[in-house]
Amino acid sequence: MEATNALMKHPRTSVILSTGGAGMVKAAYSSGKPAYGVGPGNVPALVDTSADLEESVAKVVAGKSFDYGTVCSSEQAIVAESSLRDRILALLKTNRAFIANESQKEALGKLLITPNFTVNPQCVGQAPTKIARMAGFEVPPDTTIICAEVSGVGKDYPLSAEKLSPVLSLYFVADFQSRPRYLPRASEVRRRGSHRSHPRHQRRAHSRIRSAHAGHAGAGEHAGAARLHRHHH
């Protein structure tokens, strides 16, 4: 752990992908660097309108299919703006992904996650053809992954926890500008701190940045916010 902490805090380390338990994730979040804390089934790929969709979708499919999602750092979901929905679905099909319908989606949810919300061990690391057959339907033999569009983590929760299997959830949102209030823009963090020089105010501003950073898996914008704030002071 001492060597790992030294590596995470090293000047040449720019971003951290941390897996292996709560202690490791906490150490990564406390390092002062942008950090992704990874557990089974929690890696979303965020796709906005500036993305190269062909490259992005191909890489997500490759990351999810090469070991059938067994590694917890594999992509588990695509979160994209609604305006990109049709293009993303078409590109997924181009990459031999199978798009599940409503009844297939429901069957997958019941198969992958047990009633007490743990992973069904019989599904871990299995091919999409086998997963589909276990759920009661068939997919083409060259299928890379199975995709299912879900609306959120309420009634669709079982499918949003498709951990450790070749099933990819698709979430489409109105836009990324409708952000929660607790996720500050870089400009807002800079403006809040720009006229405050007292150490107490500086500590509060840094605390806000750390809170947002720790709660949202080290997104790039948080890193930008932190850099802006440090530069000003």
Task: Describe the protein's architecture and organization.
This protein has 233 residues and is α/β, with parallel strands linked by helices. The chain folds into 3 domains: 1-38, no CATH class; 44-173, 3-Layer(aba) Sandwich (Aldehyde Dehydrogenase, Chain A, domain 2), CATH 3.40.309; 179-233. The protein is built from 10 helices and 7 strands. The protein has helices at 2-8, 22-29, 53-65, 85-94, 102-112, 128-135, 157-160, 186-194, 199-215, 220-232; strands at residues 16-19, 35-38, 44-47, 77-81, 98-99, 146-149, 167-173. Strands 3-4-7-6-5 form a 5-stranded parallel β-sheet, covered by helices on one side. Helix 2 (22-29) links the parallel strand 1 (16-19) and strand 2 (35-38). Helix 5 packs across helix 6 (128-135), helix 8 runs parallel beside helix 10 and helix 9 (199-215) packs antiparallel against helix 10 (220-232). It is globular. Residues 179-233 have low confidence and may be disordered.
